[in-house]
Amino acid sequence: MARQRQTPTKQTFRISAPAAMSVLLVGDFSQWQQRGIPMQKSKDGTWVATVALPPGKHSYRFIVDGDWQDDPECKVRVPNPYGTENMVRQVS
Fold first, then answer.
1. Which among 91, 86, 90 is positioned nearest to 63, based on CA atoms?
2. How many alpha carbons fall within 13 Å on the CB side of residue 11?
3. For the purposes of burial, counting CB atoms within 10 Å of the CB of 14, is it exposed (0-12), middle (13-18) or buried (19 or more)?
4. What are 28-60's pLDDT values in tens digits?
5. Which of 52, 49, 45 shows the shortest CA–CA distance to 62?
């Protein structure tokens, strides 16, 4: 029986927030902590973080200056218990 590859692959997350002072990436891979993964701001106002994730579905959101935000580029979303939606990134 062939084993599936469980090697994490690097996934890059981006959000445009030129006026933001801080942006965090949070998700099931960071235990949804309010102290998520700090993102780096590029010159064009896009915030970027690259994370190694194992294969599977991963739910995530951004925290922009303390406010939970959707990823406008993400098409796959699932309802969460807070009346909003989590974004879903499929890693193969």
1. 86
2. 23
3. middle
4. 999 897 669 999 999 999 999 999 999 999 999
5. 49
